[in-house]
Specification:
The protein is an alpha+beta fold. The chain has a domain at about 30-125: OB fold (Dihydrolipoamide Acetyltransferase, E2P) (Beta Barrel). Helices cover about 15% and strands about 25% of the residues. A 5-stranded mixed β-sheet has the order 3-4-5-8-7, with no helix packed on it. A 4-stranded mixed β-sheet has the order 1-2-6-9. The protein is elongated and about 105 Å long. About 20% of the residues are buried.
């Protein structure tokens, strides 16, 4: 009898409220197509990530449409924040919730993601950390730990003045 009361207490104190909290978070999310109507608000935007694009200087974009320029919403992650969030390239093809302030930039809505808690959904909970060899600025092509020999220095010869002929021909008119 005592164990059933303890189990009942655990269910009603912890499990049920957490289940309700998850349900209200999912219900509060808006589709990415409607994000433009909520600029200036703190919202949850959900949708399937079609691609994760890397822009200039290592900025990552969570794209929700096949045409990135025609899409009404994008999630933006700056390179300095990737270490806090993880390898967002793994989110491609997954349904993700993006939490934060909806802002307008260049005619479309965006949320700037700076912390891992801003990404929700089953797929976002399992984002692996960034690989140690991943260099945001160089798109993973180079590693700081690789040593290469310095290139051989070839000295160039200084320009020498033109050699003048030693004997100057005589002028035949003299």
């Amino acid at each position: 009898m005592q164990s059933s009361v303890a189990l009942h207490s655990v269910v009603f104190r912890w499990f049920l409220p957490s289940l309700l909290l998850v349900g209200t978070c999912a219900a509060g999310c808006i589709p990415f197509a409607d994000a433009g109507k909520h600029i200036g608000e703190t919202r949850c935007v959900s949708g399937k990530i079609v691609g994760v694009e890397q822009g200039d200087k290592g900025v990552h974009y969570l794209e929700f449409c096949d045409d990135p320029h025609g899409c009404p919403f994008v999630g933006v992650i700056f390179p300095s924040d990737l270490k806090h969030i993880g390898d967002v390239r793994q989110l491609k093809g997954k349904i993700v919730e993006v939490h934060g302030d909806v802002k307008e930039y260049e005619g479309r809505a965006e949320i700037i993601v700076s912390e891992s808690w801003q990404l929700g959904g089953a797929a976002a909970a399992r984002i692996p950390p960034l690989p140690k060899s991943y260099d945001v600025e160089r798109r993973g092509s180079f590693s700081a730990g690789v040593f290469s020999r310095p290139r051989s220095y070839t000295s160039s010869k200084k320009r020498q003045p033109a050699k003048l002929p030693i004997q100057v021909p005589e002028d035949p008119t003299e």
